């Protein structure tokens, strides 16, 4: 429920605080006192259009702040949490401000949010019925949902099955469209994969083969130079055994140096160490010389083998250029392609399975949607009669509300039906959509009748009505008050009225009064006690607060209302 509303610089209101209670709250005041600004302020709190002309002349900004008690852990609290806001001891603080230049700001739970967020939250908090406010039940989706709740289990049970089947139907339809509309692309992809796999299979590369062949080609291409170098190095280390004369080789020189030190090593340990190192060097160089001799004999130019290696490398390079940065990457591509090709080849079977499921789901949806349409039409007839009966008591005896259920050709998320509330203002008039078939005051009464009938079926915590009693009086006004009180048994109701017959049924009566300079200040909004209510109702009845006849009539109205509550 809306617990408190603070208003600053809105219309004639300079500053006001409305402390609201559960049940039926009524706001009265003399014409021009600013009571309609109460409805305007609530409309702004819940995302209504920001009109800079509503800013009080001379003020830079108008501000409305509301404190709303919400269910902790409920849907609204979850939305506030998603927006980054917080609750204040179980209450949601909503703030809306409008600058005189037309800029609007909104805060939800202490966090600045887009105005659209207020509208989103308002769907679960309040229904504002005022001439300049968007009517919640004028939204087509709300009308269908409200009729479904009014219908009860006769719609709820098949609707649950329909929604589940509809969701699966959409998934299957989407997947079928993907598979069938992309048949050419899939065939092209499969052909490309087969070609690539055949090409790789023909070459049959092995892991790391490209690196091994590169090294082998390098060796074969330089075989003569490698053999010459190895031979020259061997001769430098060990000498040429076929030569009769020549320079001493490295092994001979190292051996001579070792022998020179060996002769005197007994005289100095340091020199003996050097002799040992020279012995190791002789052995090491001898091993290297032997290996070089063997290498020189093994290296042999083989043009045929070189050509074969180069040809193999060319084949691998062709694969690498197309399918990966090296042979290992090519093999990985082939592995992935085999899996993808298997998936593509199985699509035809999958298409047949999906088509069969699609046909079954279509049949199921056809049956369920027909059941929904029948149940909705039956509920629509009952709802039309109930709302029309309410209008008769609300001084619209010739008006008729028609709940039109129109099946469409295509399946929708909640069936095939379009639901629209229509009003025939008088006999012979064609039923028109609510916003076209009623004036502002009539529309508020129609909405009241609908909300009373929907009470419990379309639960909203707070209802706000402005000018619901426009153009009526006497008995019809009493009936309006009685129905507002009935609605207040299941929700908070806030009503701006000029009729004492309506105000008498309220649980709390607020009066808006201007100060002498035409402003509404903080002390100008007062919650009346019993005596105050009698005085205010007397003023509304006779124009005089102290009229004895007016006071007697006021007391009688209060007594009648109290007895009926």
How much of the sequence lies in strands comes to 15-25%
| Main sheet: strands, sense, barrel | 6 strands, antiparallel
DSSP strand tally: 15
Query: Biggest sheet, strands in spatial order?
Result: 2-1-4-5-6-7
Assembly type of the shown chains?
single chain
Summarize the structure.
The chain is of the alpha/beta class and 565 residues long. It has 19 helices and 15 strands.
What is this structure's SSE topology?
Elements (H helix, E strand, L loop, with lengths): L1 E9 L2 E7 L4 E6 L6 H10 L15 E9 L5 H8 L8 E9 L4 E5 L2 E3 L1 H8 L3 E4 L10 H12 L1 H29 L1 H21 L5 H13 L1 H16 L11 H13 L6 H30 L4 H21 L3 H19 L1 H47 L6 E13 L2 E10 L7 E2 H4 L2 H15 L7 E5 L7 H14 L4 E5 L3 H4 L4 E5 L12 E3 L2 H13 L5 H17 L1
Parallel strand pairs: 3-13, 3-14, 8-12, 12-13
Antiparallel strand pairs: 1-2, 1-4, 4-5, 5-6, 6-7, 9-10, 10-11, 14-15
Question: Explain this structure to me?
Answer:
The chain is an alpha/beta fold. Helix content is 56%, strand content 17%. The protein has 19 helices and 15 strands. The strands form three sheets. A six-stranded antiparallel sheet has the order 2-1-4-5-6-7. The chain is elongated.
Which descriptors apply to this entry?
alpha/beta, 19 helices, 56% helix, nucleotide-binding, 17% strand, elongated, six-stranded antiparallel beta sheet, 565 residues
